[in-house]
Amino acid sequence: MEDTQPQDGDDASATGSSSTGKDCTIQDLMQVLVVVQRDVSTILRDNDTIRQELHSLRDDNSSRKQHNMLLSKRLDELQKELETLDRDSTLAMEMLDRQIDLQEQSSRRNNLRFFNVAETGKDSYTACAEQILDLLNHVYPERGWCRNDIERCHRIWNRQPKGGQNPRQVVVKFLHGSDKMAILTTGKDKLWEHGVKVAGDLTKSQAETI
Fold first, then answer.
1. Where is this region: Disordered (predicted)?
2. Of the candidates 187, 175, 177, the residue with the CA atom closest to the CA atom of residue 139
């Protein structure tokens, strides 16, 4: 049996083929490694970008929260200012109403209202004044009433009452407050004997209080 010996050429060829295979494998690995490193670098950059965006979002969110807190605080301040203005305006209106009422009371201090004074169909100052003077001189003659004792005299409401309705009230402003008080104290009952009621000319607030 003959021994088969490898030829020198065959050895060289096998060695070269093995070396080339190893070189290809290393090159492939190096290329893969380069690609992996590049991908890792890209991922790291993207990760940094994401972190920066997250930080930016956190900062924006924090800024919005702070802005919202400032807005909420300002709204609370405005609400308090509005409540203060509302309270002050209410007090001012109440004071104004009181001042108006006091002025109205002052303008009515010498006034009296006469009820159930018969209608004559004449609503002028002269007609009303003469009717009241005749009434006063009839029930309270010792005083000797005259035109100068009455400063103003008129019936309330312009429309005359229809049949069956009570006569309109007559508002009389006396020149002197003492005459008004004399009628309320000594002449009131005498007037009532003639079916005429007399009372002070009250403002709305005074009437509500009474």
1. 1-22
2. 187
Q: Which residues pair with 199 in a beta bridge?
A: 113
Phi, psi of 108 (to 5 degrees): -100, 5
The tens-digit pLDDT sequence of the chain (210 residues) is 445 444 454 554 444 555 555 656 888 888 888 888 888 888 888 888 888 888 888 888 888 888 899 999 999 999 999 999 999 999 999 999 889 989 988 889 999 999 999 988 888 889 999 999 999 999 888 889 999 999 999 998 877 777 778 899 999 999 999 999 999 988 889 999 999 999 999 888 888 887
Spans of all domains in the chain:
31-108, 109-203
Domain spanning 109-203: which superfamily?
L1 transposable element, RRM domain (3.30.70.1820)
Strands (E), 48-130: 111-115
Residue pair 128/154 in contact (Cβ under 8 Å)? The answer is yes
The pair of three-digit structure tokens given for residue 45, joined into one six-digit string: 């950059």
- What are the residues whose beta carbons fall under 8 Å from the beta carbon of 161, sequence distance 6 or more? 119, 167, 168
Q: Which of 90, 85, 115 is nearest to 197 (CA)?
A: 115
What residue has token string 């005259």? Answer: 146
**Cα 189 → chain centroid:** 52
Phi, psi of 39 (to 5 degrees): -65, -40
Which amino acid is present at 179?
A: D
